[in-house]
Amino acid sequence: MPVRHPAERSDPMRAILLSLFLLAAAALAPAHAQQAALPGLTEGVDYTLIADGKPYRPVPGKIEVAEVFGYWCPHCAHFAPLLEKWKAGMPANAQLVLVPAMFDPNDAFARLFFIAEGAKAVDLTHAGVFRAVHETNELPRNASIAQLTAYYSRQPGVNAKAFAAAQNDERTLQAKAANAREFQMRSKIPGTPSLVIAGKYLVLGNSYDSLLANASRILKAIGPAAKAPAAKKPAARKPAAKPRT
C-alpha cells in the first residue's frame, strides 16, 4: 500500500477551508470577467489580459501601444513597415512606443537603440538598421557594440555630439535597459514582435494583419484614455487706456 504525503491525508478543517476558498474564487470570477471583457473580442484568442500590467512609459491622456522588437529578428524586419503604415491610422489618443527586447541583458542592439533614443536619432535610423541587418548584410545579427557604433556614426542626420553624450550617460542607459526588461517580464512577452496595449493587453493574432487588426479593435474597445488636463484659457486683456490729450 503506497504511503501518502501527510499533506495529502484527510483533514476536515483543510477541506472546509478549501471549500470556502473555492466559493470565494467563484464569486470573484464573474466580476473579473466583466471588468476585463472587451466588446467583440475574445480573451485567449484576440488578446491575453496581463495581470497587474502597466504601460512602459505612460503619458497622461494617451493609450500606449508598445512594440517589443529586436533588430536581429527577421519577423520584426517584415513587420516594421506594416506597423509604420498602421501607425498613421491610429486614434489621436494612441501613442506607439518602441521597446527593444531584452532577452539578453547585454544585447548590443538594445543598447544602441537607447543611445539613438537619447540622441533623438531613432526616426533617422530605425528602418535603416533593419535593412542593414536583413537586406544589405552591412551588419551581422550578432553585431558588437563597436560595429553598431560605427554604423550609427555614418548615418546622415545623426548629431555626433548628441550621440556621444548619450553613449557616455551610463546611468540613463542602465535605467532604460532595466525598465525595458521589467516591462518585458511583467508583460510575459513570448517573442518578437509583440504588441502590448495600455500595459494590460498582449495582442494575439495568427498573422501580421490579424495582429494589427486586433490591436485596432482593442483600441476601439477600451475607448479614450484619461483626458489630459484642459488647457487654461488666456486671461482677457484689458483694453489699453486712451492717451490723454
UniProtKB/TrEMBL annotation:
PROSITE patterns: THIOREDOXIN_1, THIOREDOXIN_2. One of its GO terms (molecular function) is disulfide oxidoreductase activity. Residues 27-182 form the Thioredoxin domain. Keywords: Redox-active center, Signal. Residues 1-33 form the signal peptide. Residues 234-245 have a biased composition (Basic residues). Pfam families: Thioredoxin_4 (PF13462). Residues 225-245 are annotated as: Disordered. This is Thiol:disulfide interchange protein DsbA/DsbL. It comes from Thermomonas aquatica.
